[in-house]
Amino acid sequence: MSNEILTTQPAEKKKIVFSAIQPSGTITLGNYLGALRNWVTMQEEGQYNCIYALADLHTITVRQEPAVMRKNILEAYASILACGIDTEKSVFFIQSHVNAHAQLAWLLNCYTQFGELSRMTQFKDKSAKHADNINAGLFTYPCLMAADILLYQADLVPVGADQKQHLELSRDIAERFNGRYGNVFTVPEGFIPKNGARVMSLQDPTRKMSKSDENVNACVSLLDTPEVIMKKFKRAVTDSEAKVCVGEGKEGVNNLIGIYSAVTGKTAEEITNEFEGKGYGDFKVAVGEAVVEELRPVRERYEQYIKDKAYLEESWRKGAEFADRLAQRTLAKTMKKIGFVGR
Ligand code: AQP
């Protein structure tokens, strides 16, 4: 499909979907159920031209150990292939391999106001969390995200609730730029993917499950062994009511029901009926087993990919070459409009 984006006439063009994920730790069950599984669905439905990126430039807004960062990038790339991203059907590349991201981000910095960036709630949250390192990158992160999206003239961007504000800013930047220079950027629409589950921490179910959570029991990784997955679910925080049903003040159980539902396709009502008269022990085992089976093929494919460095390199090179051609077109047009003189 890749060449289709470059060669087809506008009228025949499929909509372009862009999405990215940060290699800021081992990919979690939350990333999988909330994002990656939908990436694969969109790829397989064939309705869109899908462009997916591993957003490594974004990760350095928080300090990274070089060796750990390299390992995370490699593992995340292999994990995403293992989830089912097929480089014959989707463009899948590593952000730092395409220079245009950093270049367009600089340009967009100059078309974004200090006040707009100051209002971003993620900036406020992350500055509170990393008070010793409130760097300029953390502040201008939304401009890099806007560059990621606008470079590919993306029509659609699947977003979780926490990224809505950033997408709105990308739209504002695009509209402002187009207003001044004519039609340069496609103004992207956000959409909430169907079946996009939000997975919460197993230890503090009022917070979302995150790769960078320091509590290893809070988060199920795609690469956890079945034994580890079972152990984490058995330790998951619940409540004292001992009734498997959705309810207020039952965040832990609500989360487990959400996960079980996302994996098995059963509704919350069906799940409540299934566990009528049974305790949380049985329920947690059932959720753990369902997740183990869901992730088993992913982990098996991951073991193959991670051993095959040559294949990984070939895939990301192909992805970067293709992404680069698309990105350069937008970058060149943007620079010309602003008034730069070409080489
Ligand atoms: N818990 C979650 N439930 C559902 N979806 C989730 N996503 C992340 N966590 C959950 C979705 O995964 C995609 C990629 O996210 P990201 O890596 O760009 O950043 P993030 O949302 O900040 O992910 P993490 O795991 O929480 O990373 P850290 O710990 O580094 O901040 C997005 O589509 C996101 O919605």
What do these coordinates show?
By secondary structure, the protein is mainly alpha-helical. It has 2 domains: 220 residues, Rossmann fold; 78 residues, Tyrosyl-Transfer RNA Synthetase (Orthogonal Bundle), CATH 1.10.240. Helices cover 55% and strands 7% of the residues. It contains 14 helices and 5 strands. The protein has a 3-stranded parallel beta sheet. It has a two-stranded parallel sheet with strand order 4-5. It is globular. The mean pLDDT is 94. Adenosine-5'-tetraphosphate (AQP) binds next to helix 2.
C-alpha geometry: globular
- Helicity, in percent? 55-70%
CATH homolog superfamily of the largest domain = HUPs
Beta-strand residue fraction: 5-15%
The radius of gyration is 21 Å
Mean pLDDT: 94
Query: How many strands?
Result: 5
Domain module count: 2
The number of helical elements comes to 14
Strand order of the largest sheet: 1-2-3
Main sheet overview: 3 strands, parallel
